Amino acid sequence: MLECCEKHAELYNELEKYIKSLEGKKGILINVLHKAQELFGWLPQEVQEYVAEKLNISPSTVHGVVTFYNFFSTKPKGKNQIKICLGTACYVKGADRVMERFLSELGVEEGEVTEDGNFSVHGVRCLGACSMAPVVLVGEKDFFGKVTPDMVPTIIKKYKEEGK
Amino acid sequence: MHLTTNTILICAGGACISSGEESVKEALERKIKEYNLQDAIEIVETGCMGACSLGPIMVIYPEGIYYQKLTPEAAEKIVEEHLLKGRVVEEYLYQGDKDKLIPQPQKEIPFFSRQVKIATRNLGVIDPLNIEEYIARDGYFALHKALKEMTPEEVIKVIKDSGLRGRGGAGFPTGLKWEFARKSPGDEKYMICNADEGDPGAFMDRSILEGDPHTIIEAMTIAAYAIGANKGFVYVRAEYPIAIERLSAALNQAREYGFLGENILGTDFSFDIEIRIGAGAFVCGEETALINSIEGERGQPRVKPPYPAQKGLWNKPSNINNVETLACVPPIIINGPEWFRQWGTEKSPGTKVFALAGKVKNTGLVEVPMGITLRELIYEIGGGSPTGKKIKAVQTGGPSGGVIPEEYFDTPVDYESLNNLGAIVGSGGMIVLDEDDCMVDVAKFFLEFSVDESCGKCTPCREGNKIMYEILDKITRGEGTEEDIELLEKLGNTIKDSSLCGLGQTAPNPVLSTLRYYKEEYLAHVRDKKCPAKKCRDLISYVIDPEKCVGCTACARVCPVNCINGEVRKVHEIDQSQCIKCGSCIEVCRFGAISKVSPAIE
Amino acid sequence: MPKIKSLEDLMKIKENTLKNVKMRELGKRGKIIVAMGTCGIAAGAKETLNAIVEALNESNIDDIAVVQSGCMGLCEVEPTVKVEIEGETPVVYGHVNPENAKKIVKKHILAGELVGELIVKQGKE
Questions:
Q1: At what angle do helices A95-106 and A152-163 cross, to 10 degrees?
Q2: Which of B37, B146, B455, C75 is most deeply packed, by most CB within 10 A?
Q3: By three-state DSSP, how is residue C106 classified?
Q4: Residues of chain A contacting C, Cβ within 8 Å
């Protein structure tokens, strides 16, 4: 669970500001959850409750929405999220083996965070870059195309070095 | 170093040679030498350019001027006029369709020549973040025409007459949809763009949003005018961050230029668009589920009727169109319905964008007239197999679609023909499969997807598909029975008939269509415990051919479980009891000594 | 920017853009367009873009604009780059990694020669 330190107070403030900026718009729960996840990295129960209170809806409704969508996470994620596209094109071009290699190199299960908090590996829905299959996305915008299992250590190394 | 100012490509295909290419070339060389231009002008003989009846033919670069029906005299004149003085010699100008010519050795790929670009007309041509480049390509002219010269009814009639059908999958006539929304009573209506492109293997909507966002804004505004909406939403997948970024920028530009907002183009029509970002639920591509998601709810489908045209977003009449469909709207408004109908078939007019992927050489996005055959699409445009392996089938329409075996590749691609084969056009994903792909495994892949994405609201989809998946899993492990195959068929048909929404109704398609064409593969799995494509892990073994193995130890070094034994320069052997069948060894062997066998060795 | 209200307003923008008026006003004789769709980026288009800008700077070329576009469809040969020089036929190059990007700047932009082995398409659109 989150400790209520200064950093979090700041994040809550920012979330509140965002909610205020949407005033007058209907059906904004998903927008708010996106923002919250962007700020906190995931959606712990307290954050969900906070959102429910601010939007004046029941926490169970918020939780229902959070658990319905794949994008929202109720577990912490690594600093670098490695997303492996499991779309059809990637699958027939060997994405399953790329996934296995990432998991064995990092020594984690899918969705689990490495001990140093640096990485987590996730299988994701088609990223729409099928012609570059298999595709791996690190973070939000670093796409790697035509990934072979042998490229995996190099990709991991790149982010390990950046983190230093 | 001298500078080549011109390059002449002269076609030395069989037809051009027989009509005198050689003497033309000699004349060119003679004349060029006469003017001492030999260092500045390069003559290259090329392979056939394809306009054999007009030969000899040549093209002069950098201008890219084509000349036809050349004679030695013509060649002399062209050197004097064109190369020396820079004047184009009109009388020999090529009259045919230049796009059809393929000058080698500047190796042009036939990939482009068969395409007709309507929805993707601006992709890669304009800077998506520059609204003026969009305008320069007739952007927002259609909006002007619609708003100032046409009534909403006239706009709807043009779209109806064009025969445009929904490109998102179902193929419902777009004009009719607009008419329903128009006629539905209410002052408050919504125009929604479905950019929740969830079918794995389809990425045309992403490409359009990223490469030409203004076309969606323009088309939505036209549609809104036609149905009488003042507020619009684009529902985009969260997986497409670049598309979201560019669309947001384009929306701001459109507002700045007065294409969105109050009193658009000085008329009394007002409209604005908001982006709503999805959160990773495939079912939200279904229109009623999408509506729930925009409202901030769980994206579960609603029972239809009432249709969104009657009771949609916040129970108001709403119209939902897919990205590619909308991208066709502005050119149709400008050029008229007949223009659009010159391509495609009677029932499926126009073009369709396909995403070619999988085991095909030219992967990418292609826009072709409806009615093109699968063979043309896969072999001529797609370039066939990249490895020389036999192409076995194509999977169309993602998890809602089916496979079409190679024997049927002469089928024209349109909504009805593909439905008859048990597949669908769908959103246009085409995954080419070759002999290494196991059909049971492919079906299982899609089923796993549908099970995972089922929203859980109705039982047939939630439970039925899960059971189907479990049976498939059993079969790929070699534990299936023939009764299981029968049960799959029965279950599949029941789920199709009884599910609430499109996801459930189409989820069994990949299984039913593979059963229809590849039953023997299923039978091989259950009867002989054999996977003919050697894909299913439990049914294969890796073996080393002692004749081919030179004992280089490469495989032994890469094996993660150290189950390959053997001394240097001696034949190696795989310990089957330890092997995890990861396939690493086969990749590193440079002697082709390792292969897969099925059934597995005990 | 005054809001657009008439066909004349639209025509004016269209003509100016087509005539490359802006380009000339800015003193540019041409542009290099890098296809930056998700697939292009996955194939390394960002690095290509950087390499082009670098190569242009190194050679002190300031009359070539570098812009981005969406995906042109032929993802197989990504990253793709289009070179448009005023008065010349546009050329699309494929497999443009940073090294090839530098080659294109050196040969096509500086020396006016096409880089034959990388061409995937010539001509408009």
A1: 50
A2: C75
A3: helix
A4: 127-132, 135, 141, 143-146
Contact B364, C70 (CB under 8 A): no
Dihedral over alpha carbons A79, A84, A87, A88 (to 10 degrees):
180
Looking at the structure, tell me whether residues A87 and A150 fall in a common domain: yes
CATH number for A85: 3.40.30.10
Q: Which CATH number fits domain B439-527: 2.30.30.30, 3.40.50.2000, 2.60.120.280, 1.20.1440.230?
A: 1.20.1440.230
pLDDT along chain B (602 residues), means of 10: 67 68 86 81 72 77 81 88 82 70 46 85 88 94 97 98 93 96 96 93 91 97 98 94 94 97 96 95 94 95 94 97 98 97 95 92 89 94 89 94 95 94 91 94 94 94 96 96 97 96 94 97 97 95 94 89 91 93 87 94 84
Q: Which residues contact B69 (CB under 8 A, 6 or more apart)?
A: B54, B55, B56, B57, B92
Length, in residues, of chain A: 164
CA distances from A15 to A22, A35, A70, B576 (A): 11, 7, 21, 57
Rg (CA), chain A: 18
| Contact assessment for residue B199 and residue A89, using Cβ atoms and an 8 Å cutoff | no
Distance from CA of C21 to the nearest CA of B (A): 12
- Locate the chain A residue with the closest alpha carbon to C47: A142
- Whether the model clears a pTM of 0.80, i.e. scores above it, the answer is yes
Asked if B211 and C71 come within 8 Å (Cβ–Cβ), the reply is: yes
Q: H or E stretch including B213?
A: helix B213-227
Contact B121, B331 (CB under 8 A): yes
Does the beta-carbon distance from A135 to C42 stay under 8 Å?
yes
Whether the CB-CB separation of B350 and B117 falls below 8 Å is answered with no
Question: Rounded to whole angstroms, how far apart are CA atoms B298 and B202?
Answer: 24
Ordered strands of the B402-405 beta sheet: B364-369, B351-358, B429-434, B391-396, B402-405
Residue A136 within any structural domain of the chain? yes
Helix B204-211 × helix B213-227 angle, to 10°: 100
Amino acid at site B313: L
Please state the ipTM of this predicted complex. 0.86
Distance in Å, alpha carbon of B497 to nearest chain C alpha carbon: 38
Write the CATH number of the domain with boundaries C7-122: 3.40.30.10
B51 near C CB under 8 A: no
Per-residue pLDDT of A108-146, as tens digits, reads 999 999 999 999 999 998 888 887 889 999 988 788 999
DSSP letter for B302, please.
P
Out of A22, A46, A68, pick the residue that ends a domain: A68
